[in-house]
Specification:
The complex is a heterodimer of chains A (736) and B (325). With 736 residues, chain A is of the alpha+beta class. Chain A folds into three domains: 46 residues; 240 residues, Dipeptide-binding Protein, domain 1; 242 residues, Dipeptide-binding Protein, Domain 3 (Dipeptide-binding Protein, domain 3, Roll). Chain A has 21 helices and 27 strands. Chain B contains 14 helices and no strands. Chain B folds into two domains: 89 residues, no CATH class; 215 residues, MetI-like fold (Orthogonal Bundle), CATH 1.10.3720.10. The relative contact order of chain B is 0.13. In chain B, helix 7 crosses helix 9. Classes of the chains: A alpha+beta (736), B mainly alpha (325).
Chain lengths: 736, 325
């Protein structure tokens, strides 16, 4: 008996030691925290760690549009212009251009017009864009040349491609200088029949000849392809486009129909970044797409970073572009930036960070916990973790919780350049139209839906109830009394106060629905709310919305459906009341005001005016305002437009969301810039501080391992004893 | 047996066609080609012309199942269904709607799924069999009763709780391993410990109870009584007779799920950011990528049929009384 015990104990000790050794071997022997999700060699290196929740669909600059795509393309591609990182309101500055281009105007005969020419005389505008010299592309095999100076990989056959599986399998890379023709080439690519650029439709309305150019390219592509499905290269240099011309090696011209000052904002997006024709030709070779080696997967730019690992199922890695032309951190910002330390790096060469590692993180909980462990440098705040991160004071002031402060975490807030609103279908016979009856019904509902309460309950205070459609920070947004919607709010000494529900009931009665009943039929008024939000999360919001209508004794029927059917309803105009949102493409009021522009209606015209609102005076003012430079006159006209829209109430104005983001103390130069998509080059990391804190925060707790071992012993030992006892028991005959 | 297998494979063809039709129907009931185009074109500034061009470019500009404009057999062949489906039967999955080679993506994502599924299956089997044998050995005692209660408790807990609780306790509070992520090579081990552990623990309840019934069923048979009567020790009876015979249903139960291990686990892969095939399918559904959805459903069906055939074959191996005919 004794002997067997002495045999067991060493076994158990060996097992325990083995378990510990495995853990040590796997994670601990490198001296790094066991839960560190990155290679040990990278600890203490100048790397920025971020995450992405959804793989980008496109990295081709002609196609990438959504925010999860431009997060990558914005660091790689360089359009001619960019937004100033620190200054507000948002301001365009040159990126690869030497200056911000100015518009020159021509009449219908092509004769020059003065800068202050009347809009109706302007038939064309053109912008001459001069780019800087000496800018080079990132190293890439498409630029590799042999000793004779010929492109090395321009005519690859199946034999050469046999051992090629990724772009890294090409052994030689090269580069070349950026030229104006590359920008023109990319503008032409917007019309390429195989790319389906999301802005082609919009740009073909402006860039001269772009619409017809697509037809030309389509015919040329069919001819070139001759029935082949892939591996077809269309050399766009052979197909001139009137609206985009090369003037010389470093200058090109963009010509547009009429006047469109907003083009400058588009020139700050990757759609207008350069693409080298030899890169396009390289990727278009037969056999490349079969290997998933495409421009959509391996972008090639001149920006501060280049994509070196593209595995969107797990990780995407960008590294500093060794050929980057160099840029310096801005030496001026807005008031308060210097005090906030945002100008500490003024004039220093950028980028500061060597490498960026984006890891796929689909769920909020692991993402948030990894941020708290220091493995992500910055984070958003989900609703689940809001209370853990932020305290809202009695006066509405926002503070970090003690836990966050003790970790040195910082909070950034900014009002997004977005709006979420509840819209009325103006073609609906009950809530739509320009009758006084319908207008008062809409106003009554606008008063009843208490968006301040919504923001407090569902957004943890992360939003501002909208008084109109233009968010703060965008020209045309009025502060103070002038910015208050007088039809929904009363102006008080301390600001505004939502009108009482009695006022809403009075309006409802005037509309012909006293106590929520139709005065003509005596029946309760039933309204219909169409939504694509149908999950359990949405139920509380929808219940809340129904309650708002219930304040007026109005019955709200929720018609939940999937997003596709919802889109169909909106396109056909069969929805009655709906919720929608808009995220600005650029910081110009035109990009919001056009959401109520009649010719931009959703029904029949497929535009973005989802309410199908149409007011001739509003439309006339829009036509005037859209082409104006920012000026007091423009602000006045926008004010008039807002008055019209507030009076007609095609929307319940909803709210402007506020973005809250957190970052660790070692993450420097963080200032929300909701327009710039190339912001990583400004950021700086203190890697030593991060490594020290990560080690401090993530020391493994070992007692659970010992506890588990002890528990196993507790379970196994009695069982073994029982087994032995049973084995030694004499057989007993059962008697019946 | 060879003729039997050939016959089973032949039966599989109409099943595959049926599943393909069903997938096609269900997908296009929810998503029209216009919806797909709108989503791929970015939702903003999308013109009807752009939608038409996208559809033409991706082969979605034809009728779904029946082309009334065409004549003869082309009424069936000149349709989205035929053009998108016929290649599947040659295992040519083609390209996703955003231009990626689906076969390549599947090959890349299969390994991470297997990296979790195989260890979880093997360790889970070992743990479950051991635990079930323990309960069977001590049947009727406090060990058995406690074990069954524990199993019921473990079975009653949701899979999501195991994942979130495991991540919270082991990775956040005790800081023993990364919360989520994946890496290639030897670093993989660090990332798969937690999901495998959770997979094993969450399966103990149902697995052990199930296997316990097999063991108890065998333990009550005449040949076991005979074995005991001739004086064999309880351990010999358990390991030599009960275990070997109870393994027949266990092995066949395992074989049927073996091919499906390739398909991955949606929940585990999502919470642990494992780049496997489970998340691939869900991503495709969210992005309305019909090419990937139909390829994955087709692959899943094929693997399930393979699993059933393997079960039949396994029966003949582990139980010589069974003959396939």
């Amino acid at each position: 008996m004794q002997a067997s015990h002495t045999q067991q104990n060493p076994d158990i000790r060996i097992s325990l030691a083995a378990i510990c050794c495995i853990f040590l071997l796997l994670a601990g022997c490198d001296g790094q925290p066991w839960n560190r999700p990155y290679p040990a060699d990278d600890a203490g290196r100048n790397i920025y760690y971020a995450s992405f929740s959804e793989r980008p669909n496109h990295l081709d600059p002609a196609q990438s549009y959504s925010s999860n795509e431009v997060t990558f393309t914005g660091q790689i591609y360089e359009p001619p212009l960019q937004y100033h990182y620190l200054k507000r309101p948002y301001q365009l500055i040159p990126l690869t251009a030497t200056t911000v281009p100015v518009a020159h105007y021509l009449d219908a005969d092509g004769q020059p017009l003065p800068d202050d020419a009347e809009n109706k005389l302007i038939a064309f505008s053109y912008y001459d864009i001069q780019i800087q010299t000496g800018i080079h592309y990132q190293p890439h095999p498409a630029f590799a040349r042999d000793e004779q100076g010929d492109l090395l990989y321009a005519a690859l056959g199946e034999a050469e491609l046999e051992d090629i599986h990724t772009l890294g399998d090409f052994s030689v890379t090269g580069t070349r200088e950026l030229v104006a023709a590359d920008y023109v080439y990319q503008i032409k690519r917007l019309a390429h029949p195989k790319l389906h650029s999301p802005i082609f439709g919009l740009m073909s309305d402006y860039i001269v000849g772009l619409g017809e150019y697509a037809d030309t390219l389509e015919a040329a592509y069919e001819k070139e392809a001759d029935g082949r499905e892939g591996g077809v290269y269309l050399d766009l240099a052979h197909y001139p486009l009137a609206g985009a011309e090369v003037l010389d090696r470093y200058r090109y011209r963009v010509t547009i129909e009429g006047k469109y000052p907003q083009l400058l904002y588009w020139l700050a997006m990757p759609f207008f970044a350069p693409v080298a024709p030899e890169v396009d030709a390289f990727y278009s070779q037969p056999g490349m797409q079969e290997r998933n080696i495409t421009l959509d997967w391996y972008p090639v730019g001149t920006g501060p970073y280049m994509l070196t690992v593209n595995n969107p199922n797990r990780q995407m890695v960008m590294e500093r572009n060794p050929n980057f032309h160099g840029e310096h951190y801005p030496d001026a910002g807005e008031p308060g930036d210097r005090e906030a330390g945002l100008l500490d790096d003024a004039g220093k060469p950028m980028p500061f960070i060597e490498r960026i590692v984006f890891s796929l993180e689909k769920e909020d909980i692991p993402y948030w916990n990894k941020f708290l462990q220091g493995y992500y440098d910055s984070s958003g705040i989900s609703s689940d973790s809001f209370d853990q991160a932020v305290n809202i004071g009695a006066g509405g002031e926002v503070n970090l919780t003690e836990g966050m402060q003790s970790q040195g975490i910082r909070l950034n807030t900014a009002v997004a350049t977005s709006i979420y609103y509840t819209g009325f279908n103006m073609q609906d016979p009950v809530v739509g139209g320009d009758s006084e009856r319908a207008r008062k019904l809409r106003l009554a509902i606008s008063i009843a839906i208490d968006f301040e309460e919504y923001i407090s309950i569902f957004l943890n205070g992360r939003g501002i109830a909208a008084q109109g459609m233009i968010p703060p920070g965008i020209f045309g947004h009025a502060e103070g009394e002038a910015g208050i919607n007088p039809y929904v709010y009363d102006i008080t000494g301390s600001g505004q106060q939502r009108k009482s529900i009695e006022e809403a009931r009075r309006l409802l009665a005037e509309a012909g629905y006293p106590e929520g009943r139709d005065i003509r039929s005596g029946k309760p008024l039933v309204l219909y709310f169409d939504t694509a939000s149908t999950g359990p999360d949405a139920k509380a919001r929808l219940d809340w919305l129904a309650k708002q209508f219930d304040k007026l004794n109005l019955q709200l029927v929720i018609r939940g459906t999937d997003y596709n059917r919802f889109q169909d309803k909106m396109l056909k105009g069969t929805a009655q009341i709906f919720q929608w949102g808009w995220n600005a493409d650029y910081p110009d009021p035109e990009n919001f005001l056009f959401l109520l522009y009649g010719p931009n209606s959703k029904v029949g015209l497929n535009g973005e005016n989802a309410a199908n609102y149409s007011n001739p005076e509003f439309d006339r003012l829009f036509d005037e305002v859209k082409n104006m430079e920012n000026s007091p006159d423009r602000a006045r006209l926008i004010g008039e437009m807002m008055d019209i829209a507030r009076y007609d109430a095609p929307w319940v104005w909803g709210f402007f969301p506020k973005q809250f983001s957190l970052h660790h103390g070692w993450y420097k130069n963080s200032k929300p810039n909701l327009m710039a998509n190339n912001g990583i080059k400004y950021k700086r990391i203190l890697p030593e501080q991060r490594a020290a804190l990560q080690a401090q925060w993530n020391r493994p707790v070992l007692w659970p391992l010992y506890a588990i071992a002890a528990l196993l012993l507790l379970v196994v030992l009695p069982a073994m004893l029982a087994y032995r006892r049973q084995q030694r028991q004499p057989a007993v005959r059962e008697s019946h | 047996m060879f003729a039997y297998i050939i016959r089973r494979i032949a039966y599989a063809i109409p099943i595959l066609i049926g599943v393909n039709i069903l997938t096609f129907y269900l997908f296009f009931v929810v998503n029209s080609p216009d919806d797909m185009a709108r989503l791929h074109l970015g939702m903003k500034h999308v013109t009807p012309e752009a939608i038409e061009k996208w559809k033409a470019s991706h082969g979605y500009d034809k009728p779904l199942l029946l082309n009334k404009q065409a004549e003869g057999v082309e009424q069936l062949t000149d349709t989205i269904f035929f053009e998108k489906s016929v290649r599947l039967f040659a295992f040519d999955f083609g390209y996703s709607d955003d231009g990626r080679d689906i076969s390549y993506d599947i090959s890349q994502r299969m390994l991470p799924s297997l990296a979790i599924a195989i260890p979880a299956l093997i360790i889970g089997l070992m743990v479950n069999i051991t635990f079930a044998m323990l309960m069977a050995f001590f049947r009727g005692t406090y060990v058995d009763v406690s074990g069954v209660i524990l199993c019921v408790v473990l079975m009653s807990i949701s899979g999501m709780f195991y994942i979130i609780g495991g991540q919270y306790l082991l990775a956040k509070v005790f800081r023993l391993m990364p919360i989520s992520g994946f890496a290639a090579g030897i670093d993989t081990i660090k990332f798969i410990i937690l999901p495998v552990l959770i997979g094993v623990v969450s399966g103990i309840g149902s697995g052990s109870r199930w296997y316990r019934t097999f063991f108890l069923e065998e333990a009550g048979k005449d040949y076991i009584r005979t074995a005991r009567a001739k004086g064999l020790s309880e351990s010999l009876v358990l390991f030599r007779h009960i275990l070997r015979n109870a393994l027949i249903p266990i092995v066949t139960g395992v074989v049927v799920i073996l091919p499906l291990l390739f398909m991955g686990s949606l929940l585990t892969e999502s919470f642990f950011s494992i780049p496997g095939l489970g998340s691939y399918t869900i991503d495709a559904i969210n992005k309305q990528d019909f090419a990937v959805v139909r390829a994955m459903v087709f692959l899943g069906t094929v693997l399930y049929i393979v699993g059933l055939i393997l079960v039949d074959i396994t029966y003949t191996i582990v139980d010589p009384r069974v003959r396939l005919s």
